[in-house]
Design goal:
Blueprint lengths: L15 H15 L7 E10 L4 E4 H10 L5 H17 L4 H4 L4 E6 L4 H16 L5 E5 L5 E4 L3 E5 L30
């Protein structure tokens, strides 16, 4: 199994978070059996309206609105946001603020990922955690164009109990009776 390590951040190269996912993407792309069709950059925090992890644009705008981002960096993000607004169609569901989230299509993502990497660098610079999620199953697609899909969000959250350990060292231990239980 490949282990990802944080690599010192450099705005012109991959940051620690990006490096890890770039390595994993290269591994998966070389394996012809595993081709992901969609990618989304998202944070840990959930959006109240979608009950889904906030996307990269929402996270960057929040850093600007909360006066966390320096003006020069805010200007950089505004340029990135303008490029996407000019180059990508704006899904009507997003215009109407429906309960949807968007994923980029990996087959047409080269230019978009090149433009989004500086925004990822900004998140990294301001220590805002994010994940690059690759999937073939983003959810129920309600909009699709050449570059992206919009999927219904927050409708199928499933909360399950903690399952019994599958570790041979913990065989037979009930999670409710362990030392770490509250």
């Amino acid at each position: 199994m490949t282990q990802c390590r944080n690599i010192p951040a450099d705005p012109m190269k991959n940051t620690g978070n990006i490096y890890c996912f770039t390595v994993m993407r290269i591994i998966f792309e070389k394996d012809n059996r595993m081709k992901f069709r969609y990618v989304r950059i998202q944070g840990r925090e959930l959006a109240r309206n979608t009950k889904y992890a906030k996307g990269i644009f929402s996270m960057c705008w929040q850093l600007i609105q909360n006066d966390v981002m320096e003006e020069e960096d805010a200007d950089l993000f505004r340029e990135i946001d303008s490029w996407f607004a000019e180059e990508l169609p704006f899904p009507p569901q997003c215009k109407r603020q429906e309960n949807v989230v968007c994923f980029f299509k990996t087959e047409n993502t080269d230019a978009m990922m090149k433009m989004i990497k500086p925004a990822m660098w900004l998140l990294d610079k301001y220590h805002h955690p994010f994940y690059v999620v690759y999937t073939n199953y983003p959810g129920e697609i309600v909009y699709e164009d050449e570059y992206q899909v919009a999927v219904k969000a927050g409708e199928d959250l499933i909360f399950e109990d903690v399952q019994q350990s599958w570790s041979p060292d913990d065989k037979g231990i009930d999670p409710d009776e362990s030392e770490n239980s509250v």
